[in-house]
Amino acid sequence: APAPPPSRHLFSDPAEVKALRGNLLAWYDRCKRDLPWRALAATEPDPDRRGYAVWVSEIMLQQTQVATVIDYYNRWMQKWPTLQALAQASLEEVNELWAGLGYYSRGKRLQEAARKVVSELAGRMPRTAEDLQKLLPGVGRYTAGAIASISYGQAAGVVDGNVIRVLCRLRCIGADSSSPAVIDRLWDMANVLVDRSRPGDFNQALMELGATVCVPKVPLCGECPVKQHCQAWRRKLFGNPPKVPDVEDCGKRVGDCPLCPPATEPWDSSLGVTNFPRKAAKKPPRVMRTATCVLQRRGCHGALEYLIVQRPSSGLLAGLWEFPSLPLAQDLEEEREREELADHLQAWMGRPVAAKGLRFIGEVIHIFSHIHQTYVVYSLPLDGNVTLDPALAPSRWVTEDEFHASAVSTAMKKV
Ligand code: SF4
What we know:
Blueprint: H1 14-31, H2 36-43, H3 47-61, H4 66-79, H5 83-87, H6 91-98, H7 105-120, H8 129-135, H9 141-152, H10 161-170, H11 180-193, H12 199-212, H13 231-238, H14 245-250, E1 286-298, E2 304-310, E3 321-322, E4 325-328, H15 334-349, E5 359-367, E6 371-381, E7 395-398, H16 400-405, H17 410-414
Parallel strand pairs: 1-6
Antiparallel strand pairs: 1-2, 1-4, 2-3, 2-7, 5-6
Helix pairs in contact: 1-12, 2-3, 3-4, 3-9, 8-9, 9-12, 10-11, 10-12
Subcellular location: Mitochondrion; Nucleus
Protein name: Adenine DNA glycosylase
Cofactor: [4Fe-4S] cluster
């Protein structure tokens, strides 16, 4: 078995844990933001609906800012106030409401899981983190802990990006915070720390602290309710980095401690508390180039209409609608790009499309989490009707207003 980590990285003093919980909860009671899912979790008497309300918020908040989520959340809960209502929705409706929120598979999985709760669990939400994670597709350890603690009062810790940052600073954890060894320690820590009588509030307080005070670049340590428990803050104040930092910190040889910064990247006093957390360098995003064509015609009422086609039901932006598009090889000459797009449209429409008839409009760059995408945008006005080969993809003509109300991605709106 691996040796236990040095105590400076743990919360081993019960008196300190008690004081930290008290300080953090008192701050949360004073300073927490009013958010619609918090109001619902606090007042909803029906436990299944309470769990559902928290679940929806947690899924929407993954990788997305609170300010962006609020409006989507309110519209979602208005449209589908219960699991049963969501289970009856179509995927198209879910995608339409989700349009612009990003990471589209989240909405789809939420709906699939709601169907499962209704059809296989008689509409009853699992009540513990273990069951939530085991029984609900798309619910991982974090979401399960959040739902169980906030909706059902289970003393389960949570670890998300905000909690990782706060805990790494509180305990000077400088090893790669995305490594399994560190993540395991952080979960242990979160489970030790969580307040037994107010677990949901405690978890939300820890995340709120990370979101509003212990922020990534310029943390507001002076206002922090737990600064007296923070090893990184203490080190910044009383610093004088020792000559051999890790020996002094952990009583071990440099490089032996699995949670200290690696010997090759010791504490940097110019960074202060932002020495923590540390992450292995991210892989650079994949660079992609896609030709996209806005086909337009006059509809029967004289308004301009645009052709959109549906993407495949799996993979990036699954099931969403877009202008006909074609991924391009890198470094193609412009002439060649245009020809490839014309060939592609020709195969689709079953009639000749001249490359020089495509009008170049400009380029749109959109950054997905792992893809740096450039859309090379063309337009092509058409006379009369065009039928696309339905075997290739479902398609439809829409007005500009209908386009904006459709399940289309932010990238396509930019186009
Ligand atoms: Fe974060 Fe600073 Fe508070 Fe420590 S004192 S937890 S670094 S805000």
